[in-house]
Amino acid sequence: MPWHSSKGAEHLFHQGGDKLDDDLIIKTTDLTKSYGPHVALNKLNISIPKGATGLLGPNGAGKSTFLKTILGLIQATEGEGRVLGLDIRTQGDQIRSRIGYMPEYDSLNPDMEAIHQVRYSGELLGMNPIVAQARAHETLQYVGLGEQRYRNIGSYSTGMKQATKLACALVHDPELIIADEPSNGLDIMARDYMIETLTNTVRSGNRSVLMASHLMDDVERVCDNFILLHKGKLAAQGRIEDLKGFDREIEIHVWGGATRLYEAMTKKGMSVRREGRVMRILHEQEDTTSLILGCAAEVGAQIRRMHEYEASLEDLFLSIMENLGYEVKSSEDLLTSPVEARKVDAPEHMGGGAS
Ligand SMILES: Nc1ncnc2c1ncn2[C@@H]1O[C@H](COP(=O)(O)OP(=O)(O)OP(=O)(O)O)[C@@H](O)[C@H]1O
Ligand SMILES: [Mg+2]
């Protein structure tokens, strides 16, 4: 890591009680955006609470368009939206002065020193030049560029440029940070650093973050909530924790008597996916583990390994999109229809659905 390590977020963010009155920071009603005949956002009804939310979706899903529309940078074709209580159609300037936006594209001037670039961002947002300068030092320190702040941005690595973009977004101490693919193009170290900095911003800084990403890992590390867009529509939204909890399985490796064990468990109504000696059993009840061990003892099968297996969000989202499509609106919907969801999650090569 070529950078200076970041300080805690406490130094950077003014703690002064909650700045947001309402728990909803973003709300849209039938928000639609068309580029000519192409509908990029299709009647989106989205409510985003305070905290950290991941905006997920494959390429072209409409993530960047959504962010630009709610920032008032591009005009919605139809529908309404409010950010921090402000109207996205008429109050874009005010929204942008209260939000830190880290765009997807390269928004930096390669001929400027980072310190000047960040100060300039603050001045554009109406900050007093002296205050902007002081904040530029602080924010660059915070994103790990304290030592390199007098270098021309043109000489920076991609990771350093992304960090500079984040410093620009934080310069005016916004209550909400909107980051479009913040870890795009970064190597593992730089990506970890970016994700950690965003996490600090939420946890210690008590700020809200809305981050677009197609990397489930990043979203999982920073965010509590997710929104999944697919072809401009809302495919699913809810709490990441719920999705993960719902899909928990116990994985066992069986030597001797695998088939007998498989049969015994399915006969008891357990949901088992099998691939040879490896089986995954849905962790439905408190005593699933002892039920498995009981079955093994009964049929004389030997369990060599046993551990909790968590499906990745990626698997889960692919399943949602392929099989449940737009029917799923929240993680609650998923939880109330676990049988369908379970069927979805069992690939045929692993023995099909629930038994
Ligand atoms: N300025 C534009 N003019 C015409 N079409 C556009 C424009 N910007 C985006 N689109 C189209 O709108 C759709 C949504 O694009 P958008 O950039 O919002 O997706 P995204 O989810 O951010 O994708 P990515 O993961 O690649 O960044 C795509 O089909 C894209 O081609
Ligand atoms: Mg995008």
Tell me what the structure shows.
The protein is of the alpha/beta class and 355 residues long. The chain has 2 domains: 9-231, P-loop containing nucleotide triphosphate hydrolases (Rossmann fold); 248-309, Alpha-Beta Plaits (2-Layer Sandwich). Helix content is 37%, strand content 25%. It has 13 helices and 14 strands. The strands form 3 sheets. The chain has a 6-stranded mixed beta sheet, with helices on both faces. A 4-stranded antiparallel beta sheet has the order 2-1-4-5, covered by helices on one side. A hairpin with a 2-residue loop joins strand 9 and strand 10. Helix 9 crosses helix 10. The protein is elongated. The N and C termini lie far apart (49 Å). The model is unreliable at 1-7, 16-21, 324-331 and 333-355 (pLDDT under 50). The structure holds adenosine-5'-triphosphate (ATP) and magnesium ion.
CATH topology assignment of the largest domain: Rossmann fold
Terminus-to-terminus distance:
49 Å
Runs with pLDDT <50, length 5+? 1-7, 16-21, 324-331, 333-355
What is the CATH domain class of the largest domain?
Alpha Beta
* Order of strands across the main sheet: 6-7-8-3-9-10
Q: SS-based structural class?
A: alpha/beta
What fraction, in percent, of the residue positions are helical? Answer: 25-40%
For the biggest sheet, the summary is: 6 strands, mixed
What CATH architecture label of the largest domain applies? 3-Layer(aba) Sandwich
